[in-house]
Design goal:
By secondary structure, this protein is α/β, with parallel strands linked by helices. It contains ten helices and ten strands. The protein is globular and about 60 Å long. The N terminus is likely disordered.
Length: 299
């Protein structure tokens, strides 16, 4: 049997440990909690074209509002807009304008998407450095991707079969290219990509394939173009000027394959989301646009 004085010492020690534990769990945190700033998370999802830009914005915003956490994921413009319609994100990124049927779906859920043009982008036509072709018209690009032109010899290149690369169908870049390049902006046109077009899930995948395949042609947002590939000059029509994509040629409307980049909110933004959207149009945020190879919004 344990002597009584040892039992008392043990009981006293246990009470002392319990008091310390209660103080650690309750007293200290309770006193410190009022000094901690409130935290809030903004969920941001969508366009893979915009994902690096959105990540850079989110990181820079931490120095402005450290109490706000911004969660950024890609998945494609359609995925982001669907998440906005389902009420699972605060901001949807899109490299294309929202479609009429998507607005209808949102309305059925009681959501009215509000559009913000946050940057501009050019779609660069890219080929392997070993390909001698360095200029194409929009019509030639359309004919290549529809399958009417199947050999590089038909556009001034070598006698080689053309390998067509495209983004996947959930990509806003894919939709934009289909509507404005393949179909040349004609609403009634039903031209489709050639059946042998390879659909790749990312801009990096297109660059990697073109780097190692001298027969390949692809398209990418200007911000994703690297020195590993060659950019082709594009003319809007036969006899027109061949223009390379850049911030200057996008803003001057000289380069024919350029587009707006969008963010959508569910109704007019409020609170932390409103403050973040206001910051995106600040000189600091628009400087990041330019640093990443996109085109800042001109007021």
């Amino acid at each position: 049997m344990i002597p009584r004085h040892l039992r008392l010492c043990a009981s006293g020690f246990l009470l002392f440990v319990l008091a310390l534990a209660l103080q650690a769990c309750g007293g200290t945190d309770t006193e410190a909690a009022p000094n901690l700033p409130p935290s809030e998370t903004i969920t941001n999802k969508g366009s893979d074209t915009m994902v690096n830009l959105a990540l850079a914005w989110a990181e820079a915003y931490q120095s402005v509002r450290p109490e706000v956490r911004i969660s950024v994921t890609g998945g494609g413009s359609g995925t982001g807009i669907a998440a906005l319609i389902n009420g699972t994100v605060d901001i949807a990124n899109a490299s294309r304008a929202i479609k009429a049927e998507e607005r209808e779906q949102a309305g059925a859920q009681g959501i009215q998407p509000v559009e913000f043009v946050v940057a501009r982008d050019a779609i660069a036509i890219i080929v392997n450095h070993g390909n001698p072709v360095d200029r194409l018209t929009l019509q030639q690009i359309s004919d290549i991707y529809s399958g009417k032109i199947r050999n590089w010899r038909e556009v001034g290149g070598e006698d080689r079969p053309i390998v067509r690369l495209s983004r996947e169908t959930n990509s806003g870049t894919h939709v934009y290219f289909l509507e404005n390049v393949l179909r040349l902006g004609r609403k009634e046109d039903k031209t489709l990509f050639s059946m042998d077009t390879l659909l790749l899930p990312s801009s990096e995948g297109i660059t990697a394939e073109i780097r190692q395949n001298p027969n390949a042609i692809g398209y990418d947002g200007l911000g994703y173009v690297t020195e590993e590939v060659k950019v082709v000059a594009v003319a809007a029509e036969d006899g027109g000027d061949y223009v390379l994509p850049s911030a200057a040629t996008v803003n001057s409307r000289q380069y024919p394959i350029a587009r707006d980049l969008y963010m959508y909110t569910a109704g007019e933004p409020r609170g932390a989301v409103e403050q973040y959207m206001q910051w995106i149009f600040s000189p600091e945020a628009q400087e990041i646009v330019q640093e990443l190879g996109f085109v800042p919004v001109q007021e």
